[in-house]
Write a structure and sequence with these properties.
The complex is a heterodimer of chains A (about 600) and B (about 350). Chain A has about 600 residues and is mostly helical. Chain A has helices at about 1-25, 35-65, 80-85, 90-120, 130-140, 145-155, 160-170, 180-200, 205-215, 220-230, 235-250, 250-255, 265-275, 280-305, 330-360, 370, 375-385, 385-420, 425-430, 440-450, 455, 465-475, 475-485, 490-500, 505-515, 515-535, 550-560, 560-585. Chain A has 2 domains: about 40-50 and about 60-80 and about 375-590, MetI-like fold, CATH 1.10.3720; about 90-315 and about 330-375, Orthogonal Bundle (MetI-like fold). The model of chain B has no long low-confidence stretch (mean pLDDT about 90). Chain B is elongated. A 6-stranded mixed sheet of chain B has the order 7-8-9-3-10-11, with helices on both faces. Chain B has a 5-stranded antiparallel sheet with strand order 2-1-4-5-6, with helices on one face. Classes of the chains: A mainly alpha (about 600), B alpha+beta (about 350). Chain A: Belongs to the binding-protein-dependent transport system permease family.
Chain lengths: ~600, ~350
């Protein structure tokens, strides 16, 4: 009772000051601003995004309809580039090869990924934790490194191939073929399928659905087949589309495995015509880029049509519920042995091959490894200042691009999801458009843009041009991390900030940004690792003094310096591993989780 | 003095009208409640006042300041209005301590640090949470969170307080206490308040005036007593006080007052109507369950019914009865034997409305 009276008196005192101060200071107690900061910020974000996305695309389109390189002075409009493409039998064959290779690699990736998601995510398979981790390795490494590992071990003169040939006489397989490419690409893309199925379906499916199936008489394996698998369909479609895009645009796998057999895909054709040729036919390059974009675009269209309902944001995230674990019974150990063997052969051996090759002068079953051990590859690698420059450039570019990319992504995502800006639909479409543009073509477009658009010219010859290309190409990747995190934050939280006097900019800065910290860190690390191993975007952009690791590695391959390349690859594997382990330990951030 | 005025305010989402031509005026120091079932547009109306949602039609003004005018495109953003808002979810910022949650409004207004601390302390003392200033929202109970939300909404001394179902996340007992406590604070601060709820008890207990809403429209506006005693529409009658509604027929009545209606089975009931102009033909008869008697009463119509099953509800029984093809509920001290029986309803307790077109 006494306490209540006291409280009442306190309130009385408060209410008196309340009334007087309100009348004095608060006629319309809001926070007034002289100009609309929010609109300005939103337009700025929109314009930056639009410029970044359209700058590379428009010059390519222009180049398609022009009779000589854009940098030439006297070009004229023409349709002959399109005509050349349509009539060329060679390009038709190349497109067909690209299609067959892409489809088979997707099939391999999906079968492996789905199987692994079910086995590792849902069963009592012994050692599933470590097998899940090993399965992820290809995702952390570039195709370039992975393809190198396969060539070193399973190529025609590879270590394993030759060991077997010694015993049976004659090589048991030919890696330099479309089938070989499909296997390597399929295995390196299996982690993506695995992740989508694991987090999109296997882990997030309500386990009562499965329990319900058990109650009506389904055995554990029947549950997987009849309930879990059908529920995975959206994840399978999404990951298939993404893998298809990646297979169409990958360069190093066909370059390493198909070029020696004189097989071309669109990406190796573009590389040969646009970079390696002494007098590049830019019209043809631009027109085939367009063809490549059409292929990729139609794959994504099909995915959209198939997934018309739901799944608006493709993410590599899901709810962390722990569903029931299915018991494999007698199949436990045989299945574990089989899975382990596949991982050993497909992932561990190629990576071990790179490490081995890096520390040897020569790798052959005929010569004992101990006799050829050497540090010469590393000495050669680190003795070349261009290589050291490439490493330092790569770190600078990756750091700046990851930082700017994360800032741009969060700005775009906040306008899309938390503002009353009029053109959020357009902004979202623009921001996701790089998904249709293969990385090599992003680089090509920025290259053209730097030639013909005056402001872009300032970026030529410094890391700026690479940063612009990287930020653009990976915007959808960063959005994929940040957008789901924004959805998790209740809308009332930023509305509440508005009611206490924050304008849009302040409410985003004071409330949304602090809450998004883990997502921003995750996006930064993901982008940093992605840029560190990237090579394809930079192919058209490197210049003397502006080397980066990936492209240097590509030219080491072209020059036949496999030992030095293996040493470089080893170094890159080490960097990525240290980065990932540090980010796990220091920030508790697990990318792709 | 009239402070807040809504004139023909509408909000359209595609083809659907969430609110449809709302007219309201709220005077200084008044506690006004928007009451209605979910989807009636009460929260949309509150959002329009707060500036969290932009109406597609009408105008809103506060004192001499124009907040919204759909024809001229005027729209004052929420931060420029400066109304205190308590959200149903409380919307406390989880990364900030209680003190920083409450203090954000003052920081944004560039109040000097010393005064800021004093005012945060005052506001927290007012909601009796002084000792918890350093805690984080995640470490507080639901009731404490609700108090922080209130402190945050009033610390910058807003001229108008908007509350969106602030008590609906509390358990029943706590809600009773919070209701009294909230009303106390509102009265002592003399704070003009708009309160949104779907709980009729809350509305009756706290409000100076109640706005009953349905389908985006205002159905009735009045003091709690007026709304409860003299509903002018069958919806407030049934929504507040759970009146039974019976389909009847009757003649035209003008000027209000007593009337006579016929039940579907021909029984005659003497009643009254609050409507100035009651049209002949199909009409609705509203009778509250506790005003139905089972003993002969003076000035009451006698109605033959078929008593049905009863439920025991502690301090009373609720029993069903069938009459003229309709089921009515009765609130009784002792249940009636099942089967044929009689009830009595006084003419002043039987209220007749027109049928909604």
């Amino acid at each position: 009772m006494h306490k209540r009276v006291q409280a009442g008196q306190r309130r009385k005192g408060y209410s008196m000051t309340y009334a007087t101060q309100r009348d004095r200071a608060y006629r319309g107690g809001g926070v007034q601003r002289s100009f609309d900061r929010a609109r300005l910020a939103q337009w700025l974000i929109f314009i930056v995004t639009a410029a970044l996305m359209l700058a590379p695309a428009l010059p390519i389109l222009l180049q398609v309809f022009v009779d000589r390189p854009l940098y030439a002075d006297d070009w004229q409009f023409t349709l002959s580039n399109i005509g050349d493409i349509l009539q060329s039998e060679r390009i038709g064959r190349i497109a067909l090869t690209t299609g067959i290779f892409a489809v088979f690699s997707v099939i391999i990736a999906e079968v492996l990924g789905i199987g692994a998601a079910l086995l590792i995510g849902r069963t009592d398979l012994p050692g599933r934790q470590i097998m899940g981790d090993v399965l992820m390795w290809p995702l952390y490494l570039s195709h370039l490194i992975f393809a190198l590992g396969w060539v070193v071990m399973y190529g025609p003169s590879g270590f394993i191939t030759q060991s077997i040939a010694q015993h049976v006489g004659g090589t048991p397989w030919n890696l330099y073929s479309i089938a070989g490419m499909a296997v390597v690409a399929g295995i390196s893309q299996a982690p993506l399928a695995y992740l989508y199925c694991l987090y999109g379906a296997v882990r997030s499916v309500d386990s009562t659905l499965e329990s319900a199936a058990r109650t009506v008489g389904c055995g554990p394996l029947q549950v997987l087949r009849r309930v879990t698998l059908p529920l995975m369909v959206p994840s399978i479609i999404t990951s298939s589309a993404l893998n298809l895009v990646i297979a169409v645009e990958t360069l190093s796998i066909p370059l390493f495995l198909a070029r020696p057999a004189r097989i071309d895909t669109l990406s190796t054709f573009l590389y040969a015509e646009g970079i390696a040729a002494s007098n590049p036919n830019h019209g043809l390059v631009a027109a085939s880029s367009l063809l490549l974009m059409l292929l990729v675009g139609s794959a994504l269209m099909v995915q959209r049509i198939l997934l018309r309902q739901g799944h608006r944001y493709e993410t590599v995230k899901g709810k962390g519920t722990r569903p029931m674990v299915l018991s494999l019974g007698k199949l436990r150990w045989p299945l574990a042995a089989l899975t382990g063997l596949i991982l050993l052969v497909a992932v561990v051996v190629p990576i071990a091959g790179i490490l081995l090759r890096a520390f040897t002068s020569f790798l052959s079953p005929l010569v004992p490894v101990t006799k050829v051990l050497t540090f010469a590859n590393f000495e050669q690698l680190l003795g070349n200042p261009a290589n050291l420059r490439a490493i330092s450039n790569t770190f600078q570019i990756s750091f700046v691009s990851a930082a700017l990319g994360t800032v741009l992504a969060v700005a775009v995502a906040l306008v899309i999801q938390r503002s009353s800006f009029k053109f959020t639909g357009t902004l979202e479409a623009l921001a996701y458009s790089p998904r249709v543009i293969p990385g090599m073509i992003t680089g090509l477009g920025i290259f053209y843009a730097a030639i013909i658009l005056p402001p872009m010219g300032w970026l030529r010859g410094n890391i700026g041009i690479m940063v612009v290309a990287y930020v653009m190409a990976t915007l959808p990747l960063a959005l994929g991390v940040i957008q789901p995190a924004i959805i998790q934050i209740g809308r009332d939280l930023d509305k509440a900030a508005r009611t206490v006097g924050a304008d849009w900019v302040s409410s985003m800065r004071l409330v949304m940004m602090p809450l998004l910290k883990p997502a921003l860190l995750g996006s930064f690390i993901l982008l940093f690792v992605f840029h560190l191993k990237s090579y394809i975007i930079a192919i058209f952009l490197i210049a003397p003094g502006l080397e980066i690791m990936g492209v240097t590695m590509l030219s080491l391959w072209t020059n036949g310096d496999v030992g030095e390349l293996a040493a470089f690859a080893t170094l890159q594997i080490l960097m990525v591993a240290v980065l990932l382990i540090l980010s796990r330990l220091l920030f508790k951030v697990k990318i792709y989780d | 003095m009239t402070e807040l005025v809504l004139k023909d305010v509408s909000r359209r989402y595609g083809d659907a009208l969430a609110i449809d031509g709302i007219n309201l005026s709220v005077t200084n120091g008044e506690f006004l409640t928007l009451l209605g079932p979910s989807g009636c547009g009460k929260s949309t109306t509150l959002s329009a006042i707060a500036g969290l949602d932009q109406p597609t039609g009408g105008r809103i003004s506060f004192g001499d300041q124009l907040l919204v005018d759909a024809t001229s495109g005027t729209f004052l953003p929420p931060e420029a209005r400066g109304f205190g808002v308590v959200f149903q979810s409380y919307a406390l910022w989880p990364h900030l301590s209680v003190e920083d949650n409450v203090g954000m409004a003052l920081k944004l207004r560039k109040v000097p640090a010393a005064e800021r601390r004093a005012r945060i302390a005052q506001a927290l003392e007012l909601v009796e949470l002084g000792p918890l200033a350093d805690r984080y929202p995640g470490e507080l109970s639901g009731g404490q969170q609700q108090r922080v939300a209130l402190a945050r909404a009033i610390v910058f001394r807003p001229p108008l307080l908007l509350l969106d179902e602030p008590l609906s996340n509390l358990d029943a007992q706590l809600r009773q206490q919070a209701r009294v406590w909230l009303k106390d604070i509102q009265q002592e601060l003399g704070l003009t308040t708009i309160y949104v709820t779907h709980d009729q008890d809350e509305a009756l207990a706290m409000s100076d005036r109640i706005v009953v809403m349905r389908g985006g429209k205002v159905v009735q506006l009045g003091t709690p007593q007026e709304i409860y005693r003299d509903p002018i529409h069958p919806f407030p009658a049934s929504f507040i006080g759970n009146a039974n509604l019976l389909a009847v027929t009757g003649g035209a009545v003008s000027g209000g007052g007593s009337c006579v209606v016929t039940l579907g089975d021909g029984q005659i009931v003497r009643a009254r109507t609050p409507l100035a102009d009651l049209r002949a033909g199909a009409q609705l008869l509203a009778i509250r369950p506790h005003l139905i008697r089972c003993v002969p009463t003076q000035d009451a119509s006698e109605i033959n019914v078929e008593f049905g099953p009863e439920s025991y509800l502690g301090d009373h029984f609720e029993q069903e009865a069938r009459v003229a093809g309709c089921t009515i509920r009765l609130r009784l001290d002792a249940p009636q034997p099942r089967g044929a029986g009689r009830i009595w309803v006084r003419a002043q307790d039987a209220v007749v409305f027109g049928v909604d077109e």
